[in-house]
Design goal:
By secondary structure, the chain is of the alpha+beta class. It is about 30% helix and about 20% strand.
Length: about 350
């Protein structure tokens, strides 16, 4: 049985108190929200903080405010189960509700938080193993070693981003509020991530992700598609989030497409989005967008399924997502990707 290493425990009651602890402890402390990823990582000795700081007692982090204009402020400690069950996360915000509902199992969603999923550690077949397994291969670049076994000649870690909610929220144009003892700042969620499996997030060690901020979702429609081997529990090995705002005459006025789990950060498909603007969502525009989106997806052999097949599915998922936003019934296609797959 894998056991947790020894650690000290802190339980602040306010954001200011949590910021003081982070400022004083530095890299020796890690924030604990739901713990659904951090605690298993600690058991595998992937992460070994001296102190855990629980955020569960900070009431400010559990709020959800959605105003009449459709703008939203989402506390980092709201659970994924609450997001999935909340009827306010529909239509314009459907991508977020779908992403939250597809994370792991109901038990984990009851504990897992929005902020925790956004800050999720990157994953890799050579990293997400127990200590003895990793020791047998002389560890890896991400933890205790000096070689990325996915690409041995690379100076950079190739572990993959496996967050479900980040691609969805980036497609919705979300911003993140980061708070430290020195002050606070807002950043576009798309700018929060680095394409580096080791240095994958730009949140500073003394900062807490406290809120996700969304502008008005009125007039928008969004969706999220996820590829995994089993219809439940598994992390994504590919995901696509898409959002569009279409005029009354059927012309795309604004759009965003984001590819997840194909690199160490979510990838914004800028060219695939640009080709939709000023055009209707018809077969030609959808096919062109899907082709352009698939070009930026360059998955590696660091997770489940054949990497070339995952790249092919990228274009198919963009097609399904845009057809769904157009109003097509794609329920049978979506259902086919929720069953256990054998490839």
């Amino acid at each position: 049985m894998m056991r947790l290493p020894l650690f000290e425990f802190r339980a602040p009651r306010t954001i200011a108190e949590a910021a003081r602890i982070l400022d004083g402890e530095g890299a020796r402390v890690m924030a604990l929200a739901g713990g659904t990823d951090l605690l298993p990582n600690m058991k595998r000795r992937q992460q070994v903080p001296r102190t855990l700081m629980s955020l569960r007692g900070i009431a400010e982090l559990r709020g959800v405010r959605i105003d009449a204009a459709g703008s939203a402020r989402l506390g980092a400690c709201i659970t994924l189960a609450d997001i999935a069950a909340d009827a306010r996360f529909r239509n314009g915000l459907s991508a977020l509700a779908q992403a939250a509902s597809l994370v792991a199992t109901p038990h984990i969603r009851n504990m897992a938080t929005l902020g925790g999923n956004l800050c999720l550690d990157t994953r890799c077949n050579y990293y997400d193993q127990n200590y003895e397994w990793r020791k047998a291969i002389d560890f890896c670049l991400k933890k205790d070693g000096d070689t990325c076994w996915v690409a041995p000649g690379s100076p950079k870690c190739m572990a993959v981003s496996s967050t479900d909610t980040a691609p969805a929220l980036i497609a919705l144009g979300a911003r993140a509020r980061l708070v430290s003892r020195a002050g606070e700042r807002e950043v576009l969620l798309a700018d929060l991530y680095n394409n580096d499996g080791l240095d994958y997030i730009k949140r500073k060690p003394d900062e807490i992700l406290t809120e996700v901020l969304l502008d008005s979702s009125h007039g928008w429609k969004s969706t999220y598609w996820k590829l995994r081997r089993r219809g439940s529990f598994d992390f994504p090995v590919l995901s696509v989030a898409a959002a569009t705002r279409v005029s009354d005459s059927g012309i795309v006025e604004e759009a965003r497409i984001v590819i997840g789990s194909a690199a160490s950060r979510p990838l914004v498909a800028a060219e695939a989005t640009k080709c939709l603007l000023g055009r209707p969502l018809n077969s030609n525009s959808i096919a062109e967008s899907a082709t352009l989106a698939a070009r930026i997806a360059k998955p590696l052999d660091n997770t489940d399924f054949d990497m070339s097949w995952r790249k092919k599915v990228t274009g198919e998922f963009v097609t399904y997502a845009l057809r769904e936003l157009r109003g097509d019934d794609v329920s049978s296609e979506r259902e086919s990707f929720t069953r256990t797959r054998s490839l």
